[in-house]
TrEMBL record:
<keyword id="KW-0067">ATP-binding</keyword>
<feature type="domain" description="Fido">
    <location>
        <begin position="100"/>
        <end position="192"/>
    </location>
</feature>
<keyword id="KW-0547">Nucleotide-binding</keyword>
<dbReference type="InterPro" id="IPR033788">
    <property type="entry name" value="VbhA-like"/>
</dbReference>
<keyword id="KW-0808">Transferase</keyword>
<dbReference type="InterPro" id="IPR036597">
    <property type="entry name" value="Fido-like_dom_sf"/>
</dbReference>
<dbReference type="Pfam" id="PF02661">
    <property type="entry name" value="Fic"/>
</dbReference>
<protein>
    <recommendedName>
        <fullName>protein adenylyltransferase</fullName>
        <ecNumber>2.7.7.108</ecNumber>
    </recommendedName>
</protein>
<dbReference type="InterPro" id="IPR003812">
    <property type="entry name" value="Fido"/>
</dbReference>
<keyword id="KW-0548">Nucleotidyltransferase</keyword>
Length: 278
C-alpha cells in the first residue's frame, strides 16, 4: 500500500467511522512493523466495516471464507497471517474491557495468534537467541526461561507504581517505549522452530560470559540498555536509571560491572561519567 486507505477516515467527524478507521490504521501499521502487508481483500473488507456495511464479526467470517477458497501454496506468503491478525487487533483495541496484568498480556497473544501459531499464548520453557532485523541483524539473547513469569510480573508491578502525573507527551512516550522494550527483551512467548537460533552476537556473548554470576533480570537490563544506546550513543548513570528503572546505587553498580568486564568504556569530552558500549 503506497497510500494509507484509512487516512481520510481518521479525519472523519463521525465518531464511529473515525474510531474504526483509527483501529484499522493501527492494526495494519503494527503488521508493517514485522514487514507484513495485508491483502487488497482485507482493505476492501475493512472499508466495508468502517462504512457500517458489515460488522467486525461478519468481516472475520468473510476473511475465513476467502482463505478457505483461496489457500496459499507459497509458504513465504504471509498475507493470510497479516489479514487475520490485523482483524483480531481491531477487535481487541475496540473492546472496552481491559486489565493491566500479565494474564491479560498472555491472553492477547493467544487471541491474536490462535490457529496461526501452535504456541499462541504459551510461555516458552526453553532459552532462545534470535537475529533481530530491528537491530540490523544482531543476535539477541532473551530472558531465561526459568524466570520468565517472575520477570513479567515484576515489570507489570513496577509499571503500575509509576505515576504519569505532570509528564509532558514526550516524557510519556519515552517511558512507555522503555516499558514496551523491556517486554520485548524478555520475550516470554514460545517460538516456531525456525526462530530458535544458536548464534550469539558479540554483546550477548560478553554478557553471558561475565565472570560474576548475574541473574536474568540484570542481563535483561544490560541488553535493554544496549538496545537503547547501541555503540554510538554516550550515556551515564541517569540514562541507565531511565532505561532500566533501577535506583541510583544499583545503576552505578551495573556500570561498574560492565566496565570491569570490558563491555563499556569511559569517554572523555562529553561530560562527567559518560560511557559507551565497545
Amino acid at each position: 500500500m503506497e497510500q494509507d486507505p484509512f487516512k481520510e477516515y481518521i479525519k472523519e467527524t463521525e465518531p464511529e467511522k473515525r474510531d474504526k478507521g483509527y483501529a484499522w490504521h493501527t492494526a495494519i501499521g503494527l503488521q508493517a512493523v514485522d514487514g507484513l502487508r495485508p491483502s487488497k481483500y482485507l482493505i476492501d473488507t475493512a472499508i466495508k466495516n468502517i462504512e457500517g456495511d458489515i460488522s467486525i464479526d461478519e468481516a472475520g467470517e468473510l476473511l475465513n471464507s476467502y482463505y478457505e477458497e483461496n489457500p496459499k501454496s507459497d509458504a513465504t506468503d504471509r498475507a493470510e497471517e497479516a489479514d487475520k491478525v490485523s482483524l483480531r487487533i481491531v477487535k481487541i483495541v475496540s473492546e472496552k474491557a481491559f486489565s493491566f496484568t500479565p494474564n491479560e498480556y498472555i491472553s492477547i497473544h493467544r487471541k491474536l495468534f490462535t490457529g496461526i501459531y501452535s504456541h499462541a499464548g504459551r510461555i516458552r520453557d526453553y532459552n532462545i537467541t534470535k537475529k533481530e532485523w530491528v537491530l540490523n541483524g544482531a543476535t539477541v539473547m532473551y530472558g531465561s526461561a526459568s524466570e520468565l513469569r517472575a520477570t513479567l510480573e515484576y515489570d507489570f508491578s513496577e509499571e503500575k507504581k509509576f505515576s504519569y502525573k505532570n509528564l509532558n507527551m514526550d516524557q510519556i512516550i519515552h517511558h512507555l517505549a522503555v516499558f514496551v522494550s523491556r517486554l520485548w527483551q524478555i520475550h516470554i512467548f514460545a517460538e516456531g522452530k525456525a526462530d530458535i537460533g544458536e548464534e550469539k552476537a558479540d554483546i550477548a556473548i560478553k554478557i553471558a560470559n561475565i565472570d560474576e554470576a548475574i541473574n536474568s533480570k540484570t542481563r535483561s537490563n544490560i541488553l535493554a540498555l544496549y538496545q537503547y544506546c547501541g555503540k554510538e550513543t554516550f550515556f551515564g548513570r541517569t540514562v541507565v536509571e531511565s532505561v532500566t528503572g533501577l535506583k541510583s546505587t544499583r545503576a552505578s553498580e551495573v556500570l561498574q560491572l560492565l566496565l570491569r568486564n570490558n563491555i563499556i568504556e569511559k569517554v572523555q569530552g562529553h561530560g562527567k561519567g559518560k560511557y559507551r558500549f565497545l
